[in-house]
Amino acid sequence: MSLVLDASATMAWLYPEEIADEIAAVFELIANDGAWVPDLWRIEVANSLCVALRRGRITAFRRRESILDLKSLPILCDTHTQEAAWDRTLELADLHHLTVYDATYLELALRLALPLATLDGDLRQAALLEGVGLLGV
């Protein structure tokens, strides 16, 4: 597996008007080498797609296509995210003033020694402080 993928980078890829060359390159890596996500990733992406549909940003058809596209990629869900939630993840959230949700991506990247694909500014800053490589922008 090549990287840890967060929901912000995922959503940028799903919205063609927001896709940048860097995000396209991240998803090319994922298509070729796969990615890891914490177990909350699917919930975050589903929620973002739900909100986008309610706000008229996407159609129900586009939402179904997006989910099928994501399902076709070699994205693996980490099964140990929950084990770190009350320990290392919480420590990272406190240390870097992150949400626990964002800290799960950082914890996973640190544990697997993989770069992180995110567009979230606070998470990017925390990753830099922790010595995690960054992809996405």
What is the radius of gyration? 14 Å
Going by CATH, the architecture would be 3-Layer(aba) Sandwich
By secondary-structure content and strand pairing, the structural class works out as: mainly alpha
Largest sheet: 3 strands, parallel
Count of all domains: 1
Strand line-up across the major sheet? 1-4-5
Question: How many β-strand runs?
Answer: 5
End-to-end Cα distance, whole Å, is 20 Å
N-to-C series of helices and strands: EHHEHHEHHEHE
What best-fitting shape do the alpha-carbon axes yield? globular
Tell me the CATH superfamily: 5'-nuclease
The fraction of residues in strands falls at 5-15%
CATH topology: Rossmann fold
- The level 1 CATH classification is Alpha Beta
Which parts are unreliable, with pLDDT below 50 for 5 consecutive residues or more?
Answer: none
Helix content bin: 55-70%
> DSSP helix count?
7
Averaged pLDDT: 93
How do the strands and helices of this protein lay out in sequence?
Layout: E1 4-5, H1 7-14, H2 21-33, E2 35-37, H3 41-54, H4 60-72, E3 75-77, H5 81-96, H6 100-112, E4 116-117, H7 121-130, E5 134-135
Plain-language structure description:
The chain has 137 residues and is mainly α. It has one domain: 5'-nuclease (Rossmann fold, 3-Layer(aba) Sandwich). It is 64% helix and 9% strand. The protein is built from 7 helices and 5 strands. Strands 1-4-5 form a 3-stranded parallel beta sheet. Strand 4, helix 7 and strand 5 form a beta-alpha-beta unit. The longest helix is centred in the middle third of the chain and has 16 residues. The radius of gyration is 14 Å and the shape is globular. It starts with a strand and ends with a strand.
